[in-house]
Amino acid sequence: MVIFMYQQSVDKSGNSSKADVVLLVLLIVSFFLVGSIALYLEKVFSSPAPRYIFIAAVLIAIYLIYRARLIGFRYTIFYKEPEAVYDPRFDDMIIHEDYPYPVGTVIFERIVSAKGTILLTLTAQELVAAVDPGADASAYGEVRDTYNFSRTKPEKSYSLIYRKDGKLCRLYFSPGKELLGFIESIMNKDE
Asked: Whole-prediction pTM value?
């Protein structure tokens, strides 16, 4: 089956198995080091407070690592009408009816591991402009809402200006050249 969509995932780049092993070793060493300090302080002060502080610190560290390592974003664009393809089951050319979105739809998802949750769906008519990182977007009007669907700082992210429910909105994202090309071709299709 021919697919007429393009998908890009943006997560913590540069992760390697070597970096994961180093992170695991550092976590184990720091766990035992901080744990032994907490036990020592518990004896010195004759109070269980250091133990609770240690548990809170471990939970915060787990949450921060979870956020930094497992959460990312996925961008999907449907860029072309489905075409008839040969289906050997019917020995005929057919158009599959399972094409879920119209051409020009852009979907933004938050991904945790491989599971995605749709955050925003935009149609081609809602897209206004794709703005380079650091460029001024005030020429498009006053932006009401801003969202960040990028793993980098907003100053280093591309912006997508769109109009939803009568409001001009902006979202920051980190598209590759191919995805950006599809978005720009969808926006320039009517011209």
From this structure: 0.70
Q: List CB contacts of 183: < 8 A, sequence separation 6 or more.
A: 77, 106, 127, 130, 160, 175
Question: What does R_g of the chain's alpha carbons equal in angstroms?
Answer: 24
How many residues appear in the chain?
Answer: 191
Helix (H) or strand (E) holding 11: none
- Give me the average pLDDT of each 10-residue run along the chain (191 residues): 71 64 82 86 87 87 76 87 78 72 89 84 92 86 88 88 92 92 84 54
Would you call 131 helix, strand, or coil by DSSP?
strand
Output the CA angle 143-147-150, nearest 5 degrees. 130
Biggest CA–CA distance in the chain, Å, is 81
